[in-house]
Amino acid sequence: MDALTERFEHERPRLRAVAYRMLGSASEADDAVQEAWLRFDRTDTGDVENVGAWLTTVVARVCLSMLRTRRNHREEPLDQQPEPDADVRDPEQEAELADSVGLALLVVLDSLGPAERVAFVLHDMFAVPFDDIAPMIDKTPAATRQLASRARRRVKGGAAADADVPRRRKVVEAFLAASRGGDFEALLSLLDPDVVLHADRFVGPSTAPIVLRGVASVRKGALLASTRARASELALVDGIPGLLMVRGGRLSVVLAFSIDDDRITGIEVIADPERLRGLEVAVLD
To answer: Can you give the pLDDT at residue 81?
Structure first.
């Protein structure tokens, strides 16, 4: 490799990490990094003192442009949108990246405006000074600081709607562990005998809503969904611990729980895009 290529390859892992956190998609992150390489290759950087910072700026601006384009096209009719996995070139790689960031964080980042997302990711995750971020998003350093602060509040969420969050969290964590492991007895101990599960028509494979009543039916459904459970993560959903699944960096399914005396009395499975957009998701420490 010549010196130029070698220098870029040295920076590539960090640039990809920056791009993935901004875009939430492994394939889009690769596209952004490739675009940065093309610009790097055709630019005379002989006078650039900090090549790493220069490349970070290029990647950030490419990602900002992609985020703005995505935002402008978000309201496409459903029949014109690609299949959920159509843009995922390597599902294992996508899952590995998601695990490194956290599904809940990806969901919250996807709810931020492009400038907010760039300011938060660069400053809070990669320690880029606000003075350096500001020109990328055409803001003053003070305004950039405010954007990052606002994004930080969104990530952490507001005050929990339920004061008993720790207890509820333990129950949901236990349900997730039992579902992942196919633990029949553990699920039996967590579910109320009269538990009811409601799943909207977007959950599939049926086009009609699904209702399961009683511990036997819900337990069986949870065990059958063990593959989905392995791709789920705990998060605060409207201030209450729940489970979420993410596909391509975006929220695809949420499980909301009703809990009474450490027993799960109800589970609501939400996949309706309209309802998902109305949920407030936050990272659960």
So the answer is: 36
pLDDT classification of 85: cutoffs 50, 70, 90: very low
pLDDT at 261 over 70: yes
Please report where in the chains the tokens 């159509």 appear, as a residue. 86
Shortest CA distance to 193 belongs to which of 166, 211, 218, 156? 218
Segment 220-239, tens digit of pLDDT: 888 777 777 777 889 999 88
CA dihedral 265, 271, 275, 277 (to 10 degrees): 120
Residues near 268 by Cβ (< 8 Å), separated by ≥ 6? Answer: 197, 198, 199, 255, 256, 257, 258
8 Å CB contact between 225 and 237: no
Give the tens place of pLDDT for each residue, 140-155. 999 999 999 999 988 8
Contact 281, 107 (CB under 8 A): yes
Half-sphere exposure for 262 (CA within 13 Å, toward CB): 7
Report the first-to-last Cα separation within the chain, whole angstroms: 44
> How many Cα atoms sit within 13 Å of 277 on the Cβ side?
5
Distances (CA, A) of 90 to 23, 182, 192: 16, 27, 40
